[in-house]
Every structure is written in structure tokens, then in C-alpha cells.
Design a protein that fits this description.
alpha/beta; FAD/NAD(P)-binding domain; D-Amino Acid Oxidase, Chain A, domain 2; 2 domains; eight-stranded mixed β-sheet; 18 strands; 25% strand; globular
Amino acid sequence: MKADVLIVGGGIFGCAIAYYYTRNNPDKKVIVLERNELCNSATSRAAALVTKIRTKKHFVPLSLETYRVIPEMEKLLGESMDMKYVGVMHVAASESNEASLTELIKIAREFGQPAEYISGEKAQQLSPWLRTEEARKIAFLPGEAYCDPYLLGTFFSRCAKLQGAEFRQGVEVEKILMENNTAVGVVTTEGSIRADTVVIAAGAWSPLLAAQAGIGLPMAPVRSQYWITEKKDIFPVNSPIVLLPDAQAYARPEGGSLLFGIREKKSFTASPKNIPADISDFSFSPDKGMADLTEVIDKLARFFPSVYDVGIKFYVAGFSGYTPDNNLTMGVPPGVHHLLLATGCVGAGISVSGGVGLAFAELAAGRPNPFDFSYFDIARFGQIDPFSPAWLDRCALARSTKVSG
């Protein structure tokens, strides 16, 4: 069997790449291989804040493409994806975060996105659970949204299928086929497949596959975790996303409940070698993250005082590919031909999925990348061992100290 492009991994990145590639190259053959079910791992476990405007403004064009493509896919399928365009509030309660918020407003205006400062009273009207007495500045960006991450991922896959992509589920890639420094295909549990270009989009397991091509992929699987409360009147269904950098926390509505996440003092990481093929077999936290939450709950309670009293209904955890600088790790690996790496999402994978899909579709077709990937360079950390405890700890620390959404 032969493909023009072979994508390893059927998460949101793999599905998005297949969508754009088939849209822009209708005469070419693309195959996506997924050993479990499409979008069943990190994608479906994401909090799915589709944040457009960030202080790392090199992310912004990627997220803007996600917003642009969603109506395109809705039209193709004749269905609504039910994006929740509720906006986002950024609450700054320290001098440093107030300065970051000023920069964020400038970036929003640079990209033509609406943004304004609002009063604490207005913020509490929008989100009655929020305590704003300590806020120095609150910004509201009404154009931001969140979504069902599984639905967005499967919109990409369904549209790609309509355009001719082939998705093969239950097929595991065992080996990247290399001839000298060139990727020429893969060996799977159902035989070999040759390809002109191979794209690794395998999430937490990507370093294992990259190592077969001699690449020390600079990312590590680091746990993201969040909780969903019981339903309360103080959690309106249409209230905004709220980012709380001084608490290293975020929150968004979830059907009359509140979904909230924190950055724990010591983030949990695991070697890709120790993560099972089916992530549902992995124990992320025996106590459902309660020890981590207890360590930082006082910071969160400054803005969400009822966190002490509200009941917790659900706990969700998954792996994101983190890096020491909290930038994506993806692109063209130096010295290796016909292999592309769509990896290292640093917790932003849902938001940037449209831009990532378009970028890798163009690279796979031999055309220039329409986005600036210089900040995401695979080689920026030099030679690293992605399986060493020291490297894993560096990446985990990056999540623990992260304050942005």
C-alpha cells in the first residue's frame, strides 16, 4: 500500500492535517492511522478553551485559523458545532499581571479583536461566582469561545473523509521506516505502508516514534487536570471563560456547572515509555487530584470563595506535550527528510488546531509554511534525551509555573 501522506495519530492534530491536505490536494492520497479510536485520548480530555489572543502572539494566527475554519466545516457537514462564543475575562490582581494584561489588550487590537476593560461589578454580573475585590484590572474579550473538543476533532475527520481521506482505526504503528535519513513509510500491526511523507502526530507517544528516526524530540507528557462542580445558580450557562493568572487557574461554564483547572505546585509527568497504548488504562491520580487542589486552593479561593463548599461531580485528566519554554514543538526536523512532527501542544492544542492543520498540510504538499514556526523549532534546546528524568522534570516545571490560559 502507498500513500502520498501518512499521518500517525488520529487526535485533533492528525485529523486537522488530513482535512486541510485533502481540501487543498484533492488528487492525492492521505491515510491516517490510529491504534484506538479517533480523538479518544488528549483531545477528548481537553478543557477546550479556544483562546485566540495570548501574550505569546505567535500562537494567535494559528488560533484565528481555527475560528475561520469552523464555519467552513459546519457548512460542509450541514451541522452546527455549537461553539460557545461567551468571551473571556482576564483578571489581574498583581502589578506584573496587570502589565501582562495591558500587553494582551495591545495584541488584541493589533489583530483586530475586540477587547475592553470592565468593572468588578460588571464582571460579577457576568460570573456571579467570581470575587473581584483584589482585581487591579479586568479585561473582557467578547470574541473568545470554548467548544466540545471531541466534536471539533471529529468535524475535522468527517470533513476529511468526505474529501477522500482514509482513516484506519485499530491499526498501531510499530516502526517508522527509514532509508538513510529519509522516512519512507511505516510498519504497522497490519503490514507495511509506504509514503512520500510521514507525519508524526501521536501526542504523548511521539518521542518514541521520533527516536526511531534519530530525533530527540523536545517535549514531555505532562498531566493536565480539571474538575467540574455540581450545578449551581451562580454558574450561568452563558457566563464567560475566566482566566486567573494570580491563582494560576482558569474556569469556564459547563452546562450550569463550573469547570475549573489549576497549575499544581509539582506537575506530574511520565516517560512516554511508561504510558499504555490505551490511556484509559492509566491512573492519573488515585485521589482524583484532591491533594494537588488542596495545596493551592487558598489562591483559588481569593477569586472563587465558594470552592470550599461546592460539590465536585467530575474529575478529568490527560497528557499534554509540554516544553521548558511553553512553546509548541513542531515542524521539520533537521537532517531528516520527508518526516514532519506535529507535536508538543503545551495545553493549547484545541485552540491552535486549525493553524497546525493548515501548516502541516502545506508542508506535506511541498509548499511553504504559511505561519512563522521559528518559536517552535525542534532544535531550539540542542541535543536532549526526551526520556531522562531531568528533561521530564524541566517540562513539568514549565506547566507548574505557567500563569497564562
